Amino acid sequence: MRMPEPDAGIIARRATIARDLQALVPGEGVIVDEDALRAYECDGLSAYRQPPMIVVLPSTTEQVSRVLRYCHEAGVKIVPRGAGTSLSGGALPLADAVTLGLGKFNRILDIDYENRCVVAQPGVTNLGITTAVQGEGFYYAPDPSSQIACSIGGNVAENAGGVHCLKYGLTTNNLLGLEMVLMTGEVIRLGGKHLDAGGYDLLGVATGSEGLLGVITEVTVRILRAPETARAVLMGFPDSDSAAATVAAIIAAGIIPAGLEMMDRPAIHAAEDFVHADYPLDVEALLICELDGPEAEVTHLIERVEGLARNNGVQTLRVSESDQERALFWAGRKAAFPAVGRISPDYYCMDGTIPRHALPTVLKRMAEMATHYGLRVANVFHAGDGNLHPLILFDANVPDELERAEAFGADILRLCVEVGGVLTGEHGVGVEKRDLMGTMFTETDLMQQQRLKCAFDPGQLLNPGKVFPTLHRCAELGRMHISGGKMPFPDIPRF
User: Looking at domain 345-379+389-432, which CATH architecture does it have?
Assistant: First the structure.
């Protein structure tokens, strides 16, 4: 994995740049101490590390605007950073760039129950929004497993999902408006509390843009009324094929659960040892299906789900009888990632998405890959929408295990595309999947995406080295032709 070559001229100006930034963000808003910078050297994809040149911690939109305007005029790169929980290396620093941390943007600005929305700064945690409104019977639907720590701004940047996104949608389906600062320092507003506006869908463009188009400083999200009834069905199966067939049968029957999650045997045992959720340990696959709505509807749907599960050979089946028991069912699933961390020194979390009908095929092929690479894999994923999260277990202290884990992960993602899926469902591309983008997109596709980036950031200063495997200068886009197998402009960095 290669990143852009650092600009020696920018690094030589580090002291001057730091002094100028301290004038824009006074107090403790600029970090230059080498030990303090270590806290920002990676995000959730901790295999890749690089101390930033400088870290800036603004606390107002005006300060963000000043910093970006200064860096634009000085030709200094910017890497936006939220809570640092990204699993794709989206916030990986650069040696010649300023890391712009948004941790001080941690206030909820407005709760509007009449319009059912919340306006929050980007550093507010995902769970913090639900906590703020649950007293009035509301909640925010997208709920990543890291919701206790991940920030809403980062959720927008990566278009985060969660266990309840099958029925209620990902971040993009619950986002109403943004305030965003462009690289020039200009502040724009997209959307708001109103319904969709006319014109180009720039709000959709910004969602999932991974910090390449601007820096988000305010977020308006939709909140929902808590359902009258919510119950979860815990189903154990003798094999993954039976569980996958049940998933397909539930969706084919027209039932849209609030959540439909699957775990395989290694993940089940790890979660049970960690959380003690009373999971069955004699099964090969576990489904958690949550149904919500009016009590009569939920009761009816549970009966239908039970029937479908029995038709597919369910081995054990339990229905939650209280909110406490339902929360316990989910506690194991929500804690699956840290639970797996207890059984392996390291793990590599993937994020591919496939058509639901391909689940048995993909799970079988992954098991074959695990044998080929000599590595274990635990599967925890959003079965209802086909968003896989295989956890490849390895030990970075063992020579070549990290390299094997990366190769294994790349093969999984190629398989996802092969069966009609995509490289990422919610974690983003970042640096992790950057060099695989050509598996899913043609060169023309990628160049068209880069033209959009150029409209926002013609100097290529925002989060460079992420998402795009080949760097094109904006002036050259549209004139790139391959002749005789040779690319023009051979001096352009290609990672």
Answer: 2-Layer Sandwich (3.30)
Strands 229-237 and 316-319: antiparallel
| pLDDT tens digits along 151-177 | 999 999 999 999 999 999 999 999 999
For the full predicted model, state whether its pTM sits above 0.90. Answer: yes
Q: How far, in Å, CA of 433 to CA of 467, rounded?
A: 7
Using one digit for the tens of pLDDT, what is the confidence trace for 346-360? 999 999 999 998 999
CATH architecture of the domain with residue range 229-338: 2-Layer Sandwich (3.30)
CA 450 to CA 444: how far, in whole Å? 10
Which residue from 441, 434, 471, 453 is spatially nearest to 48, judged by alpha carbons? Answer: 434
Q: Are 133 and 118 in contact (CB under 8 A)?
A: yes
Q: At a CB cut-off of 8 Å and minimum separation 6, what does 382 contact?
A: 161, 163, 165, 166, 259, 260, 261, 389, 425
Q: The dihedral of CA 356, 360, 365, 370: what is its sign?
A: positive
DSSP strand pairing (77-81 vs 97-101): parallel
81 close to 99: Cβ distance less than 8 angstroms: yes
Spatial distance between the Cα atoms of 169 and 140, rounded to a whole number of angstroms: 11
Q: How far, rounded to the nearest angstrom, does the alpha carbon of residue 316 sit from its chain's CA centroid? A: 32
Long-range pairs, 280-285, Cβ under 8 A, ≥24: 280/236, 280/315, 280/316, 282/236, 282/315, 283/236, 283/237, 283/238, 283/315, 283/316, 284/237, 284/238, 284/239, 284/240, 285/236, 285/237, 285/239, 285/240, 285/242, 285/243, 285/244
CATH classification code of 108-225: 3.30.465.10
